[in-house]
Amino acid sequence: MKFWRGIIIGMAASAAALLLVPATGVAADLGISSDTIVRVLERDDKNGSMHSLLPVYEFLRLDYSAPRMPGLSLHVHGWGRLNLRDNYNSNTTAGELLYAYLDYLEPGSRDWQLRLGRQYIFEGVTRESIDGLYAKTDIVPTVTASAYAGFPVNLDETNGRTGDSIFGFRLAQGLPGYYDAAVSYKKVSNDSARDEEILGTDATLLLPGNITLLGHSSYNLVTSGWGEHSYEARIPIASLEFRPFYQKFTYGDFFSSKPGSAHPFRFLSGYNDKITVVGSEGFWYPAENVEVGARYKHYEYDRRYGSADMYTALATLRRKIFSEVGIEFGRVEGDIAENRYYLGRAYAYWDAAPYFVTGDVMYVSYDDPIYREDRSFFASLGVGGRFMEKALTLKLSLDYSEDPYFAKDYRGTFAASYTYGK
Question: Where are the alpha helices (DSSP H) in 292-344?
């Protein structure tokens, strides 16, 4: 915690220095956005008591570029929650700092980038929130290297931060317009013990005829097994595009089974299952504002669920830029009851500036009842508008659903979004 306090203090001092720099004749680049969400819903607790909930969420983001320090900027984003009725959650209030970091991007050439603070890393095998340092550079015109080190945020509540660490890198080589290939690495330690260690590869290959091949694989060095293979091709032919794909996941190697892991699907590692997904999707664009598509997926589970096939057809019609309506119809045919059903969906977004209307309806019909229910239904209707030269957006929506797990579920949401500056 001392390290993170040091970062916070350092960032606060740096931010203050940025704000105090004389800006005479230099325009400061400041952006502030606020999203306020008020929800109304009902939930049963484990004792069967009904709770009427009224949580209020606030998401606040700030982006600031130093007027006299080209390339240096500050980025902060966090959220808070206040329960105004029935404390269904464990605490009346909650909140989290999602990210807060200083960023330096070399002006002009942009060959160097440095980030310090709480930040998200999306590099190769890494999808993590860390408190630490990130650096990226173009070593030569065809080679890019990035690396990071610090503390994993998801282990903050697991016996403190003593002995916790995360570091990794990604090294990529490529020729623009032809190919890009990279290798990446991540290691996470929890209480000085190796929690995760993953090695991965990813590549993109551009072929004649605008054909693209892309994919990635990851190898778990803790369990000595391949966790994921995911590959896809994109093949355009006139107004058509086909996307065949192949995916394979080994739960025991893909999900960390360590007690400190914060991954929401960590429990799947205990099933020691494997899933293979193969199929293709195709899209036809007969006109600029019309899209027609079809999708097929075959799921093959090694142990628990057997196999299943999913067939989907969809169509979208767009008006001008923002308005669109769409329909979707699908069939899933599988070995277990939960994987045998028909699905239909229709949605719309209609823009009549400054107002807009949204709607979404979905219906699922199961071949065999689940908890004595043979259908699921969901409907959502929203209305809103943009004001103050689109700086302020207001939206009110009402959702209703019923399924084998919730008899009748009503939810109301009011959202207000405000943006200032960039």
Answer: none
